[in-house]
Fold:
Amino acid sequence: MLPKRIGIDLGTANVLVYVKGRGIVINEPAVVALANRENTVVAVGSEARNMMGKTPDTISVIRPMKDGVIADYLITEAMLRYFIGKVVGRVNFIRPEVMICIPIGATSVEQRAVRHAAEQAGARRPAQLVPEPLAAAIGARLRRDGGWALIVDYGRDASGPGSSLRAVRGHRGANILDRPGEADLSAHVDFAALAAAAGARVFGPIGQGDFLRRLGIAHRAETLKAAAATSQRAAIDAALARLIAPDQMGTLFRVLAVGDDRSAAPAGFSDTPSDDT
Structure:
């Protein structure tokens, strides 16, 4: 059984929850009603908003988000737990993969608070964060114009526990503890979480080497060599190997395409449709 893939827009006024394959399933106010004496949640979302101005002194109605960031961590966690539970059900043996939109100006402390609240609320670790303007811009552009967004970066195909660090030396993967200071350190992109948050047709991810071969890079290299001086041909071969060889950048980088149903399958992915993943 595959885990559900959920995207959450945790806004100051409203919370939107998207589930891949179903679309937006929740659009409710970011409001929580709390019993003051017991410090327990009485209601969340629309039900809590309807209680505003109508509750006794023993119940407080609170907005736990302020300016798009967490103002009350524990109440935000309870709110996330409620919305995630509403999507996955009361009995859930497989934690959902969750990506949450955050404001562009959120500090590292605020980002950690959002991630930790989502994980404590039942999301698979690590919960993924994406800046709201980036997600909104990609989605709006694809809905308006069609076409595809192509994402190429270091990454892994599946969400889950494990190191997210990658060390690269001389265009090859390296042990992050071997010869410190001599390698570039980067973080894996969680392509599974990106695909879940896209809310659109998805192809890939596939390795950069496979992607470039399907685009005809080998033929292009032969064309360049035919017109090149003899002294340049070895450099072209080396550059080609650097881009596509499995022990170099061919598998270091992954490629993902996100688009809409109006557009034909993008070049380079003809053999790897993943609309149902």
In short: The longest strand covers residues 148-156. The chain has two domains: 5-135, 146-259. The radius of gyration is 23 Å. The chain has nine helices and 17 strands.
